[in-house]
Design brief:
alpha+beta; homodimer; about 350 residues; 14 strands; 4-stranded mixed sheet
């Protein structure tokens, strides 16, 4: 069925966690779907965090690999994870959605269900967006998340100091491992059980961990692991003008994941942060394990990248280059992911 | 040349009006491009306006019709116009941009030039966004604009009362006329001179008019004319639960535009607003003509739409249906525009 846009909007407005048309208000949202703009009121003393993230069919997901619920969940999770990486509280989401004319209504419903289930879990209201027909039969989504944080308290990428310890939450490589299996299933025809790879299909943004680290002023710099540890560690080093030494054996790997997947696999949505070495960091925060993987060092001149990242593996030191993560898109370029953003990542 | 995303981001950060990496701040922007999120600080007593708008190649623009500068300008103008329609002040923009791998760098530069020229005209900072490779060789942009407005003062669509007068700014139908000419040029091969159709290629959002109306508490309801007068008037009637009577001869038409183009043509980005009939409205605000075109009436039961809109033309009254605007996209659906939004339009 062709999607009448009006009915799509009406549909969204009726769903729990969305809408708030007319005079209805909730929390910070003074006006939601149904006007020229949404209106939000942030309490005095709060700053506004803003992040936007594409979820494009064929680049960030595939319809034959990802259920509509998973696509909706992952779409919002990308934005929530960015808010987590600042230590912020997510407040409102805005969804721009371009759909192919012949997309079954059931797909859209599943997508919205996945997105809104995650939204309600974190008290986030879907307060607006845009809809359009997709020009080339691909599903195109762009999610905007607004968050709040106490004035001046947000944890930036730029605060890491030489001597700081480097930590990661959870386990790495799970998402890359799932994608590898999905890719193999193309040839074997064997279907993957999504329940075995929750971190890929339904990643949990580490909101509670970020909030804890901010509340206790523990982290000097933070980023979420969306591009992969190697690339995201370089982002911190670049913005903080420092280098880093990490140890391969300290990196927490998801079961079955290789070191390469843990180093360069993206979309794990764990947090990578730094903290003064003498600061005591709990081994588990909000139920999520926290592991030290290395140390921030002074920036070194003459390395291939301006900020020098070294990895120690079985007693051998090597330079760790930002190898991001080769996505599953089959387009011409070798780097179709291009995830690091024109900013607010 | 394939666009290395990193260089695209670096390019944007270097452009005037964009970026603000690291510690640099400007106005409300505490942190711009280069972290997980941007950080904005709104003064106490201000509310935050949020709007998002797609600009998709083949739906909202065509590369053979629109210069990159025009596409960039129109992309941002859509968001600014939504802020204008609330009476707000635009503050920051966020751009999500997916590009084909083989897009010439000159196109991207022109696009950013057009977008940033308009941004600087209104003191708007490009504070973030996302970049990706386009999955199907189409240019895909999504613009987010954040604006500010005094608490509780934003002009909504829902405040029109029976007896209020209905006004429009400027002239209508110019954009539809230009598109008609563009469409004819496909057959004739005759190139259109964009300078003759500034309202289509470089529309000016009516920020100053919206701000004036808010400052003088003149407007009871307002919307920007992006979908076309017939559709946008229905939006006001729907949200205000009223009807409307307008007169064909009172509608200010752009030179050469037909009544149909003035009624149903979209993307003029003028303002449509209502005000108490006894309230004196200047004939010109911030240099833009303001014309009364009709009167708000009580909602009538039994009309085909729940809110009844009548047009009087040469003494004959007819129902005015929301015929929005048939776009130039050549996809299967008859309503490829689907501009009215999953909210913040």
């Amino acid at each position: 069925l062709p999607l009448a846009e009006k009915s799509l909007i009406a549909r969204i407005r009726r769903m729990p966690g969305a809408g708030l048309s007319g005079a209805a208000t909730s929390g910070l949202i003074r006006l939601g779907i149904g006007d020229d703009t949404a209106i939000l009121r942030f309490p005095a003393g709060q700053e506004v965090l803003v992040t936007t993230d594409f979820s494009l069919e064929g680049v960030h997901f595939r319809r034959d690999w990802h259920s509509p619920e998973s696509v909706g969940h992952r779409c919002l999770a990308r934005g929530l994870s960015d808010i987590a990486a600042m230590g912020g509280e997510p407040e409102a989401a805005f969804l721009s959605l371009a759909l192919p004319a012949r997309l079954p209504q059931a797909w859209v419903d599943g997508f919205l269900r996945g997105l809104l289930a995650l939204a309600s879990q974190y008290g986030v209201t879907l307060a607006g967006g845009d809809t359009a027909q997709s020009p080339k039969e691909r599903i195109l989504a762009d999610i905007v998340v607004l968050g709040s944080v106490l004035q001046g308290k947000a944890v930036r990428r730029s605060g890491a100091k030489p001597g700081d310890a480097i930590y990661v939450t959870g386990e790495l490589g799970a998402s890359a491992l799932a994608l590898k299996k999905l890719s193999l299933s193309l040839h074997s025809g064997k279907k993957l059980n999504p329940k075995k790879y929750p971190r890929h299909f339904f990643p949990e943004p580490r909101i509670a961990v970020g909030r804890y680290l901010l509340a206790h002023a523990m982290a000097s710099a933070m980023i979420d692991l969306s591009d992969g540890l190697s690339t995201d560690l370089h982002h911190i080093c670049e913005e903080s003008r420092v280098g880093a030494h990490i140890s391969a054996e300290l990196i927490p790997r998801a079961e079955g994941a290789t070191l390469q997947q843990a180093l360069h696999g993206g979309e794990d949505y764990e947090l990578l942060f730094t903290a003064p070495a003498k600061r005591k960091i709990p081994r588990s925060i909000a139920g999520v394990p926290v592991r030290r993987i290395g140390t921030v060092v002074q920036q070194k001149r003459g390395s291939r990248t301006s900020h020098h990242v070294m990895i120690l593996d079985h007693g051998k030191a090597a330079e760790l280059l930002p190898r991001g993560w080769e996505h599953f898109a089959r387009e011409s370029s070798k780097k179709p992911k291009s995830k690091s953003q024109a900013s607010p990542k």
